[in-house]
Amino acid sequence: MNSEIIKVSNLVTQFGPNKIHDGVSITIGSGEIYGILGGSGSGKSTLLKEMILLLRPESGEISFFGQNILTMNSASLTKLRQQWGVLFQGGALYTSLTVTENIAVQLKEYSDLPAALIYDIVQMKINMVGLPQHAGSLYPSELSGGMVKRVALARALAMDPVLLFLDEPTSGLDPVSANMFDQLILDLRDMLGLTIVMVTHDLESIKTTVDRFCVLGEKKVIAEGSLEDVLINPHPWVKQFFTGKRGQTRN
Amino acid sequence: MTASQQAQLHISDTKQGEKAVLLVSVGDWTVNQLDQAVECLQSFIKLNSGIIIQWDLSAIKNIDSAGMVLFINSYDQLISKGCEIKLIGESTEHKRLYQLVRRFINDKVTAVTIDKTSFVNKVGERSVFFVLNWLSFITFLGESFVSFWHVLKQPTEIRFGSIVKNIEDAGVRAIPIIVLTSFLIGVVIAYQGAVQLEKFGANIFIVDMIALSITRELAPLITAIVVAGRTGSSYTAMLGVMKITEEVNAMRAMGFMPQIFLVQPRIIALILCLPLLIFLADIVGIAGGMLISNIHLGISYEVFIGRLRDVLDVDQVLIGLIKGPVFAWLIATLSCFYGLQVSNNSESIGRYTTISVVNTIFFVIASDALFSIVLTELGI
Q1: Alpha-carbon torsion B212, B213, B215, B217, what sign?
Q2: Is residue A52 included in any domain, yes or no?
Q3: Which residues of A touch B (CB under 8 A)?
Q4: Which residues of chain A register pLDDT less than 70?
Q5: Residue A54 resides in a domain
Q6: What is the pTM of this model?
Q7: Which of A105, A234, B72, B328 is the most exposed place for a label (fewest CB within 10 A)?
Q8: Cβ–Cβ gap A113/B31 under 8 Å
Q9: Is position A168 within any domain?
Q10: ipTM reported for the complex, 2 dp
């Protein structure tokens, strides 16, 4: 692990009487692809949403580049938000905008570049995520599931972020597309030097793509580390996840 | 995080000849900082051709893909204008990014675009939309009647629970706003009438005026407009969202016909509610008029009610009430129709809700005019 870029410590999250996290701590190193794993309802997506400030934890600390983001002022948060890109689970594309407009939206809002240059940048991103040239003029409702994910990724990459958050990037894709998407994520990390945090269920992605990951369960982190580190963990859920039938068949 | 610095381009002469220029890129060539450099480069490209350029990149602090796209674009344009470019001071970092971006950048493709702003095009588009819209409305009406016929044959399939819930939403909850508006209408009519009638000393005729205008015209119209704005819009928006989230498709797949489960209960509920709301509006409107007549013209409540009994036939009230179901059918049918027309984007919800409210109010007023003409011709 290189120098740490994100550090979550002693995070507690509560929705009413329902405790989701009780002292969750993880560290994410610069340049790595970090996975967040766990059963349904273990608070994976909640943890991701807290990191991108869509939800506020009860207590604990989340720091990016050594600064606690929970106590930052709004000016520095605006800056911070331009340094990360987020791919939501369902894509969350703006349905009334075309693919090109979706990718261009931050570029238009945060810079004064001429439209032609923005168009060139967007076309470059479209090519980069492997979308066909004509995709730019389509509307989200005209895209297939795999294309939606790619557009969402291109949009997340629009501002050249240092950090990329992916919420189940391969869910809903067929195994072939999922493999291609994993490869794309790896390529982008190598090309752009990104740090990537992804929530995933996909064993295949964990084996091929993710460098380190944590497993959430029982409101805590039950395992953290590389695949080898986690495999020797005796926790029953971890064992079940990696040795269950579903895990085997995809090998 | 260090403070970022505007990307800049310094242009100066080299001593190596007349047509040689030295460009020095300075600062952060990142997406937020590029605007000065863009302008500078554009004017530079416009002014120069066929010269020798030395481009010094060593003073660039940071560069991202946006900056690199700008660089590559400018570079290509200058080359195509016959310039000769020599790069100095590029780092390995720059080269790596250059190769990456170069790989994904387009050779300029001229996209085939239809001129959507052309007048003829717009007229054509609108006309086709208009015709298709009417065709699908006729289809919708057909489905609606077929499903009514269906539940008439099998009354157990009527969604009573849904009807009751819709009566609560569209009827019971609308009572406060209906009471308030119709009371104010009564007050306004009484005030306007009082001033005129006082001139003739015909104070007592205020009763005729209020009773007839409110029961025959104003109460039905105002109630229908309030309901169209309040309930019609919510029907359109709700069905529209159900369409987008594929709930409508899920229902169809489970064999629940949206006509029977969604549209019909709303039509029935509104047909039952609206006459009752109109009757309420009649009473409250007349009460409002009665209050003002008492304060302004000194007509006591006993005198007012006595006169009311003489001038207000049951027929007049019934004419007002009979409009209720017709307006209700128009409002519910149109707003459900527009709700189900919503296509897969959030913008169309807004558009169709607007169309729905505008059209229901228009058709309510239009059919009221039709009622007036027909009833007058019939001499009622």
Answers
A1: positive
A2: yes
A3: 65, 79, 82, 94-96, 107, 110-114, 117, 120-121, 123-125, 127-128, 133, 137, 139-141, 159-160, 191-192
A4: 1-2, 245-251
A5: yes
A6: 0.70
A7: A234
A8: yes
A9: no
A10: 0.73
